[in-house]
Amino acid sequence: MIGAITLADGGSLHFEDVGDGPAVALLHPGLWDMRTWEPQVTTLIDAGFRVVRFDQRGYGESSMPEATYSSVDDTIALLDERGIEMAAFVGCSMGGAVSLQTVIEHPERAWALVPVASGCPGYPWDEELEATLFAPIEAAMDAGDLVLATDEAMKVWAALGVDDPAGARIREIALDNTQNFTMDEELDVWSMYPTYDHLQEIDVPTLVIVGDTDVRTIEEIADLLATRIPGARKILIEQADHVVNMRQPEAFDAAVLPFLLEARP
Fold first, then answer.
1. Mean pLDDT, to the nearest integer, of 37-60?
2. What is the radius of gyration, based on Cα positions, of the chain?
3. 184: Cα separation from own chain's centroid
4. Residues 259, 50: contact at Cβ < 8 Å?
5. Res 140 pLDDT > 80
6. Is the full-model pTM beyond 0.90?
7. What is the mean pLDDT of residues 68-83?
8. 168 has pLDDT over 80
9. What is the SS3 string spanning 136-197?
């Protein structure tokens, strides 16, 4: 089903909950919304999984944040509302970072973890690299041109281009979410937690996914996760940039599906 839940503070989350079997929670990257997981839904259902995906606050059809909140708490609230006790958390970029912290704070709710091109609060970005990458985006934002800001962001996060069908869809979903540039990211308090310092506490089967054409810091984080999370392993997807599962859906599924089938409770 497709629906929405109302959170304790009055915010709302738009979600889809389909299929039967062990639950897989799909968390989307920043700039986009839950539609980034379109290529995986049918594959997961056919493999015998229940699939839950949702728009995080400020994205898609979910409400914009108006006061402090936690994306980790929102994720758990959705699982509670849908009667899901445990899930495999599969998250890309921002969604990967939220997945990491959710598993750290609520280990009893996870049966597997798949961080994809993941962020990691507490890991230091190279300041010079960050300034070089994001200055054009910030300039467009300051000028109030959110379409230009999106296209500048695509140069960073969709480096393989937006002219092919996959790239065009990546850009299309991002253009539907230009409101994210106006959101106060500091309202989301989960990102202030030092995830980086607690990775060794993660105790569920973990598969780290990263593309071979992603931003250097994201590739470094993937190596870090594979090293610091006990038992984790990493798969590099070729000809993939940041939104790996959209850019190379077949290779992504070939990597992730056997892992989930092996780890399923």
1. 98
2. 17
3. 18
4. no
5. yes
6. yes
7. 97
8. yes
9. HHHHHHHCCCHHHHHHHHHHHHCCCCCCCHHHHHHHHHHHCCHHHHHCCHHHEHHHHCCHHH
